[in-house]
Design a protein that fits this description.
about 325 residues; alpha/beta; Rossmann fold; 2 domains; 8-stranded mixed sheet; 10 helices
Length: about 325
C-alpha cells in the first residue's frame, strides 16, 4: 500500500489487521470464475499444479499476472482470489502456481518448498514465458509477477539472482508482506502471542504434511524430533533445511533472505510491508539505502500481515491488490 494508507479505526493493531481480513474481509465484488488447473511435471520427476483464470477473448494475447502464494497458501487464499478478480476485470490472464504440496495433493519427491526457492520460481516463470512466446513470437504482452509473504521473498530472490536477465521474462515484480530478513521474521513469529496463535496455526498443517512425506520416503528425517518441534526454527531444522540442501535453519534463513541482495535488482520492483506486521519487525525492513533505483518501497504504518483492510465493518481486502495492480499497469 502507498505510505499514506491508514487502517479503519475499528481494526486497531497489527494482529487484528492480520486476522480479521483473512477470515472476514470481503474479497471480490462478484464471484470469481472457476480456475482452470494444469499439472506440470517438474525436471526432478515431481509435479506442481498451476491454477489459471483466462481473460475474456482468449483468442487475443493478454498481459499475464502470476501470483506466488505464502506459507501454506493456495489459489483460494483471500489475497489470491482478490488479485485474480482485479486481473480478470482488467482483461489480464492470471496464474497461481502452487508450491509443492500446497494444491491439495501431496507432491511425490523427497522435498517440499521454502522461502528462498528461487530456482523453482525461475523454472515456473521460464515455462510460462516460453509458452507465451510460442503463441505470439516477439509480440507477447508483458508478464508481471507478485509474491505474497513467503512467495514474496522467494520471488525477490529470483529477481536478485537473475539480474538483467529477469527483464527477458517479466516486466516488473512486487512482494507483499514478505519477511525479507528470515531470521528476524522467524524470531518474531516464535515468541509471545505470535507463537501461541500463528506458529500453532502453521504447524497444525505443516507437521501432518511432513509426516505424510516421511511415509512416502521412510528415513527422510527424525520423526520424533519433528513431533517435538514447537516453533518454525525447530521445524525448519528437522525438515525444511536438510530437505532442501541447507546445513540447518540458520544457514537456510541466512542464504534464503532477500534483504541483503535487494540492491542487485534490475527490473522495476515494488516492496510492500506494513510497519505493524506481527510477522516482520519494522526494524528489519529494508531502507532506501538497502535498495537500488529499480526498487520502490511502500511501508505504511498500518496493515498487519497481508491485511490492509478498508471500509466499514466487516471491511474489505481489495485495496492493496488494486493499488499493486495499478502500479504494475502504470509501468506500461
Amino acid at each position: 500500500m502507498p505510505p499514506d494508507y491508514v487502517a479503519p479505526r475499528w481494526l486497531p493493531g497489527g494482529n487484528l489487521q492480520t486476522i480479521w481480513p483473512a477470515l472476514y474481509g470481503r474479497r471480490a465484488e462478484a464471484p470469481l470464475p472457476a480456475y482452470r488447473r494444469e499439472r506440470w511435471s517438474t525436471p526432478d520427476a515431481d509435479f506442481i499444479d498451476v491454477d489459471f483464470l483466462d481473460a475474456p477473448g482468449a483468442e487475443v494475447a493478454r498481459p499475464l499476472l502470476v501470483l506466488f502464494h505464502g506459507l501454506e497458501g493456495s489459489s483460494r487464499s483471500h489475497y489470491a482470489e482478490v488479485f485474480g478478480a482485479f486481473a480478470h476485470a482488467r482483461g489480464w490472464d492470471y496464474a497461481v502456481p502452487h508450491f509443492r504440496g500446497c494444491s491439495g495433493e501431496l507432491n511425490l519427491g523427497p522435498r517440499a518448498y521454502h522461502s528462498g526457492d528461487f530456482e523453482e520460481i525461475g523454472w515456473i516463470l521460464s515455462r510460462l514465458h516460453e509458452r507465451r512466446e510460442a503463441a505470439a513470437p516477439g509480440h507477447a504482452p508483458p508478464m508481471y509477477a507478485v509474491g505474497v509473504s513467503l512467495g514474496g521473498n522467494a520471488l525477490m530472490r529470483w529477481v536478485e539472482e537473475s539480474g538483467e536477465q529477469a527483464s527477458r521474462q517479466v516486466r516488473a515484480a512486487a512482494s507483499i508482506s514478505a519477511p525479507l530478513d528470515l531470521a528476524a521474521g522467524g524470531a518474531a513469529i516464535g515468541r509471545g502471542f505470535n507463537r501461541l496463535v500463528y506458529t500453532r496455526m502453521f504447524l497444525a498443517t505443516m507437521k501432518p504434511k511432513a509426516l505424510a512425506k516421511l511415509a512416502q520416503h521412510p528415513g527422510l528425517f527424525d520423526r520424533e524430533a519433528l513431533l517435538a518441534a514447537r516453533d518454525l526454527h525447530a521445524f525448519d531444522n528437522v525438515f525444511t533445511a536438510p530437505l532442501h540442501g541447507f546445513r540447518d535453519t540458520d544457514d537456510y534463513w541466512s542464504r534464503g533472505s532477500a534483504k541483503p541482495h535487494l540492491h542487485r535488482i534490475r527490473i522495476p520492483s515494488l516492496v510492500v510491508n506494513a510497519a505493524n506486521d506481527p510477522f516482520v519487525p519494522a526494524s528489519s525492513l529494508p531502507r532506501q539505502a538497502d535498495v537500488g533505483d529499480h526498487v520502490t518501497l511502500w511501508q505504511p504504518a498500518h496493515g498487519g500481515h497481508v491485511g490492509f483492510p478498508l471500509g466499514a465493518p466487516p471491511g474489505h481486502v481489495r485495496g492493496m491488490p488494486e493499488r499493486v495492480v495499478d502500479w504494475l499497469d502504470g509501468l506500461g
